[in-house]
Amino acid sequence: MTPFPLIRALDRGAIAFVVVLVAIAVLVPVLNLALPPSSPFNVPTYFVALFGKYICYALLALSLDLIWGYLGILSLIPFFIKKDDPEVQWHAKNGVALLLAEVVWCVAQIAIAFAHIPVLGCVSGLVGCLVWIGFLAISVLCIVKAVNGQRFRIPVITDMAEKM
Fold first, then answer.
1. With CB atoms 3.0 to 4.6 Å apart as the test, which of 43, 47, 53, 125 could cross-link to 31 if both were Cys?
2. Do both 48 and 33 map to the same domain?
């Protein structure tokens, strides 16, 4: 049994890719700092910064599949594009169900606003603010759980999502 669960989850090709990626990530700055600028193997300083920027963009692109699942209408992107990945699909379905709950709440808020009942409008406005903060907190919690490889079950919404 391997002590590192990540190693068990990866196949040989993925392990080789990670090893090469780590080697390049270490080698590029070392070639910049250790070799004089006249050396043909010296990596210019601008390229080190550019390389770091590209690595950050690549990590961002990988994490967006899970994060987009909880960013409102953007949850439709992994829902329709990533059909082959069950983990991304689970989070995307959860995000779409959360989006539908937000839309239902928004429609209810608009209906109450057009009802022109003075006390109900004020109470609805205060409760509405709290509910939107709750939606934001749930979205952030779901994003954090998704990035950490976990699932967060939202009581009614996840049940709806599993029926999609």
1. 43
2. yes
Cα distances from 45 to residues 23, 48, 73, 118, in angstroms, run: 18, 5, 40, 64
- The domain total for the chain is 2
Cβ–Cβ < 8 Å for 99, 72:
yes
Cβ within 8 Å of residue 117, ≥6 positions away: none
The per-residue pLDDT for range 105-131, each reduced to its tens digit, is: 878 877 777 777 767 766 776 777 778
Write phi, then psi, for 65 (nearest 5 degrees).
-55, -40
> Of 46, 63, 80, which residue sits at a domain end?
63
- Provide the domain limits for residue 101: 69-162
Contacts of 152 (CB under 8 A, 6+ apart): 94, 141, 142, 145, 146
Would the pTM count as exceeding 0.85?
A: no
User: From CA 19, how far away is CA 28, in angstroms rounded?
Assistant: 14
Provide the 8-state DSSP code for 71: S
Q: What are phi and psi of 37, to 5 degrees?
A: -60, -20
Q: In which residue are the tokens 């959360």 written?
A: 98
Cα 62 to Cα 56: distance, rounded to the nearest angstrom: 10
